């Protein structure tokens, strides 16, 4: 009936207005607590409208949060690009039981925000450069870094980390310093920027093995007790404390 249609259109207009505030400005204009995201940015499942597919909920939630964490330029770009589109669909009817106009608009906004965040991270913060550096270090380049690092750890034909774990904090600190010097020297020899690398990566030594190594040893102890008491168990060395 006409009165019901008028009411539905009014409700849709209010909902779309609230949604535009969240997606474009990252703010919630909801004096009566009707919107499905509260002022703290928390999702309220029982208020999520049935006119939108459930799969869209996360996109809406995290798009608004991305806007909140972004700068004013992001909101300005969103307003310039999408605010008019919200105005154009303000009185649009539903297609069946689904708000297709809003669904399409949310997808476009989500794609735009994702592209802007990626551009911001890659261009302004040099994300790709950081990822390449992490790859080269964690994968040890093509092997040259690994080989040079091991070579630098050799002293009189023996690796400095072959020694048993020291109980002296000063000895551990000195050994840690020697390991990092060896690592940076190896990095320099294979063409890394030593100064830049030193700011982002640091090897550390503790006075006890890592939990994973201790767990593996416990497993070996249990196995040896079941098999033979004469089984020789490995001795921890400083290698086991390297992180």
Automatic annotation (TrEMBL):
Molecular functions (GO terms):
gamma-tubulin binding; microtubule minus-end binding
Q: Does the keyword Cell wall biogenesis/degradation apply?
A: no
Q: Which residues cross the membrane?
A: none
Question: Could you tell me the keywords of this UniProt record?
Answer: Cytoplasm, Cytoskeleton, Microtubule
Tell me the compartments it is located in.
Cytoplasm, Cytoskeleton, Microtubule organizing center
- Chief subcellular location equals cytoplasm
* One BP annotation, GO: cytoplasmic microtubule organization
GO CC, sorted alphabetically, is: gamma-tubulin complex; microtubule; spindle pole
Q: Where is the Gamma tubulin complex component protein N-terminal domain?
A: 7-121
Q: Which family does it belong to?
A: Belongs to the TUBGCP family.
Q: What is this protein called?
A: Gamma-tubulin complex component
Q: Tell me which species this is from.
A: Hymenolepis diminuta (Rat tapeworm)
């Amino acid at each position: 009936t006409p009165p019901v249609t008028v009411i539905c259109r009014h409700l849709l207009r209010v909902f779309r207005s609230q949604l535009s505030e969240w997606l474009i400005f990252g703010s919630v204009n909801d004096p009566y607590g009707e919107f499905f995201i509260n002022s703290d940015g928390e999702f309220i499942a029982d208020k999520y409208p049935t006119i939108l597919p459930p799969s869209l909920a996360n996109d809406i939630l995290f798009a608004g949060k991305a806007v909140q964490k972004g700068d004013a330029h992001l909101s300005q770009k969103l307003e310039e690009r999408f605010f008019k589109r919200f105005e154009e669909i303000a009185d649009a009817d539903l297609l069946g039981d689904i708000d297709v106009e809003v669904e399409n608009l949310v997808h476009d906004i989500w794609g735009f925000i994702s592209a802007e965040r990626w551009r911001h991270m890659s261009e302004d913060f040099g994300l790709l450069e950081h990822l390449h550096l992490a790859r080269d270090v964690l994968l040890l380049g093509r092997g040259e870094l690994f080989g040079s690092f091991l070579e630098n750890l050799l002293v009189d034909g023996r690796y400095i980390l072959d020694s048993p774990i020291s109980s002296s904090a000063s000895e551990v600190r000195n050994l840690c310093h020697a390991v990092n010097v060896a690592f940076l020297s190896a990095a320099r020899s294979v063409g890394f920027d030593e100064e830049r690398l030193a700011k982002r990566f640091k090897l550390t030594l503790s006075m006890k093995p890592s939990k994973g190594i201790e767990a593996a040893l416990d497993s070996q102890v249990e196995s040896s007790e079941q098999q033979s008491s004469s089984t020789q168990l490995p001795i921890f060395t400083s290698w086991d404390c390297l992180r």
